[in-house]
Structures are given as C-alpha cells and as structure tokens.
Design goal:
alpha/beta; six-stranded mixed sheet
Length: 299
C-alpha cells in the first residue's frame, strides 16, 4: 500500500502525486471534509450495521480520502492498479472514485472555483465575474478509445492526428483562470457550432472583449465584441501589417493554451479515456478545471 503519510510530509512528492503542495492540500481538505460530512448526514439509506463496523478502513481519514481522489486525477491508474496500491477490492476502488469525485466537485463549487456551464443572462455574468474584461475562447480535446460502433466511430473522429476524441470549449481570462466550460461533445463537432449550441457568447456583455481563433470564423458577424485573427484570403497573401497583428494577437491569446496545459496536468483529462460511466469524462473535466483554478488561487 502507498505510504500516504510520507507523501504528505514531502512537498515535492505530494505535488507529483496530487498536483498540490501541502499548504494547498490542507486548504482544500477543510472544505472537502465539510462536504463529506454533509454527504454522510444526508444519506437516508437504512444501514445494515453501525457506522464504523466491519474491517478496518483503508482510507481511514479525510486526508487519505482526499489524497486518494487527487491521486486518481493526477495519475489516472486503472482500477486494478488503484485497488492494488491502496489495498482495496477493485469494485470498491471504483465506487470510492465515483463517490469522492462528486464530493471533490461540490467542495470546489463551495469555494466558487468551478467554471460556469451555462449563462442564463448578462446579469449572471456580471454577478459572477464583475472584474473580467476579456474572455478567450478555445477548443480542447482529449482522446478516447476508438468506438466499435461505426456511427459512434465517425462521430468521435476529430480529424486531428487521426484520433477519436471528446471536445470542450473553454472560456479563460488573462490570468489563465477557466471561467466557462461547455459540456463534452464528440470530436467531430466544429468549434463554432459547439460554442453556438452552448449559447455562452450571447450572455456576455458587449463591453467584455471576446477573443477566439479562426475556428470561430463567422462569430464576428453576430456580435460586436468579437476579435479574431486575420484570415488569409483565397489565392492571396496577408499584408505584413496583418501578419504582425496576427502575431501580436496570438501572443495575447496564448494564455488559454497555458490554462489548458494546467488542466491537463491531471492525466484523468489528458490520457486516453477508459471509463464506461456515461458523461463521467465531462465531470472529470469540470473538476480538473476547478482544481486548476484552485491551484492558481492557492499559488
């Protein structure tokens, strides 16, 4: 079994296994414990034996439970490996992951660190993000196992690196914080279409600058606050001034790529997706984005 106490005493090792240093780990552990206790108290299912009965718990403390789920996010082991490392039955390891993922997501939500999935109106944006003056939209994909069904295979084929993927659209700030996140979709869908169907842009005030790449071409015809790079005309070349403007624009937009890289420090959202629970990849991405926002705040 992993020596968790050793990891908790070594900042470098703890960051390698969970993505957080000890100070950040302890801060998150406080709210994680509150949510965990609330989940126990709200469980009305009749128990067959008194709480604490049975064999000695492997995840014996709240620190061990938080370490367990953060380790899963950071390293993304198979349940066979995870059960062996933590001396658990494979099925129990699976159940703990799905239970603790929900608790971790709720804990990050309590700290107001999760990205918004949908904006109802402009007032909601102003209430949630009063200081935000720019939003940078971009698409990000994670590979999935090649579906056996022919229709699903075509739907998930992204055309990028000949991979089958699931895709999200993110909205980031200049400080690399991810404030908006669309639901996961099959990789074939175009960036602009996914953004349109998520209906995020229409509820962002006109005074907020929105930046995107050429994958969102056409958006500038619908909203006044859209800024995109110059597109090369067919059969022609961009002028030197346009090339320079594109270069400066890319240097400003690159922070969204840094945000994606920060989220994908967690292998659970960057490695080939293996889980079978429907839409669990979407929950993993949401929680990983919340962890990245927490990391920025704690740093």
């Amino acid at each position: 079994m992993l020596n968790i106490n050793r990891a908790l005493k070594n900042d470098r090792l703890l960051r390698a296994l969970t993505g957080l240093n000890r100070k950040a780990f302890d801060q998150l552990c406080e709210v994680f414990e509150v949510v965990y206790q609330e989940s126990i108290e709200s469980d009305t299912k009749p128990r067959k034996r008194a709480r604490g009965g049975g064999r000695k718990a492997r995840l014996s403390s709240i620190e061990f439970k938080l370490f367990f789920i953060l380790f899963y996010f950071k390293c993304y082991p198979t349940f066979d490996v995870l059960s062996w490392l933590f001396d658990l039955d494979r099925g129990r390891a699976n159940r703990w992951v799905h239970r603790l993922q929900g608790i971790l997501e709720t804990a990050l939500g309590k700290k107001m660190l999760l990205p918004e999935r949908k904006l109802e109106n402009i007032e909601q944006f102003l209430e949630k993000f009063p200081a935000v003056r720019e939003v940078i939209f971009d698409g990000t994909e994670r590979p999935v196992q090649r579906p056996k069904d022919a229709e699903k295979q075509k739907e998930h084929y992204s055309g990028k690196k000949k991979r089958h993927t699931r895709k999200h659209i993110t909205g980031s700030t200049r400080t690399k914080r991810v404030i908006l996140l669309s639901e996961a979709r099959a990789g074939k869908i175009h960036d602009k279409r996914q953004l349109d169907e998520a209906d995020l842009v229409s509820n962002i005030p006109d005074l907020v600058r929105i930046e995107g790449d050429l994958g969102f071409q056409g958006l500038q015809n619908e909203f006044v606050n859209i800024h995109l790079p110059h597109k090369k005309p067919r059969g022609k070349e961009l002028s030197d001034q346009q090339k320079q403007e594109n270069k400066e624009f890319s240097s400003q937009r690159v922070v969204c790529e840094h945000a994606h890289a920060g989220i994908k420090r967690y292998n659970a959202v960057s490695a080939i997706y293996r889980n079978r629970v429907p839409d669990f990849d979407d929950r993993l991405m949401l929680t990983a984005a919340g962890l990245w926002n927490f990391y920025l705040e704690a740093a």
